[in-house]
Specification:
Elements (H helix, E strand, L loop, with lengths): L2 E7 L4 E7 L4 E5 L6 H13 L3 E6 L11 H8 L2 E5 L4 H12 L13 E3 L4 E4 L2 E7 L8 E5 L4 E5 L2 E2 L2 E2 L9 H12 L7 E4 L5 E2 H7 L4
Parallel strand pairs: 3-4, 4-5, 5-6, 10-13
Antiparallel strand pairs: 1-2, 2-3, 7-8, 8-9, 9-10, 11-12, 13-14
The protein binds zinc ion (2 copies).
Length: 212
């Protein structure tokens, strides 16, 4: 049975997800720890559970979702992947975060490879299907773990909401069709784990999300 641990990091409260086999392999999604204190919280969990991080994957490239990539990379050397259309954000993360009032001095490393629609990222018994869902940003993706019924929706779909589309590369019509055509077609019981805020299910969002 796969396990899931969620952390909420940095003042924007980004959800960082760690999917893992007990005592085994792990994949981290959106490592957004911003300082040593937050990183220590993640590190303590990894060490305590004896996990080996194989990948760090990003749902998209916005600065608040990538703060921790370098710290995680330095400590565990996982393979870092993001969709190519969002890779340009990585070089701008420092500027963008300062523009939003954060004093983030770190650098974000170059990706080790890119995520494409329908890719399957496998580590141990974890199988994440990459779903390209442009709209919040050009290179936004969601990750679907079919055996667990988990969907990691990034800033595309929230409980009762959708991602903003007023940032560079955002497109309202596109986010709506990404969600309705590629996420709402998953089984109703699929648990949605968004980039911010509480979880939901596909079935719940189908009937109650005011944007869909
Ligand atoms: Zn975002
Ligand atoms: Zn976000």
């Amino acid at each position: 049975m796969l396990q899931l641990k969620m952390f909420s990091f940095n003042p924007l409260q980004v959800n960082t997800y760690l999917i893992y086999e007990p005592g085994g392999i792990g994949i981290i999604i959106d490592p957004s720890c911003m300082d040593r204190k937050e990183f220590n919280e993640l590190q303590n969990f990894i060490e305590k559970n004896g996990l080996r991080l194989e990948y760090q994957l990003n749902t998209h490239g916005h600065f608040d979702h990538v703060f921790g990539v370098q710290m995680v990379k330095d400590a565990y050397q996982p393979i870092f992947k993001i969709h190519q259309d969002d890779a340009g954000f990585l070089r701008l993360a420092g500027d963008h975060s300062r523009g939003f009032g954060f004093d983030f001095e770190g650098e974000i490393p170059e990706p080790d490879g890119y995520l494409d629609d329908s890719d399957i990222i496998t580590a141990g018994t974890i199988n994440l299907t990459v779903i390209h869902v442009p709209g919040h940003s050009k290179g936004s993706v969601a990750f679907y773990e079919a055996s667990s019924g988990w969907l990691f929706s990034g800033d595309t779909l929230f409980a009762g909401g959708i991602g903003r589309t007023d940032l560079p590369g955002g497109n309202y019509d596109q986010i709506i069709s990404s969600i309705t055509e590629k996420l709402m077609v998953l089984p109703d019981a699929t648990i949605v784990f968004p980039g911010h805020g509480p979880s939901s299910t596909v079935g719940k969002e189908q009937v109650s999300n005011p944007y869909l």
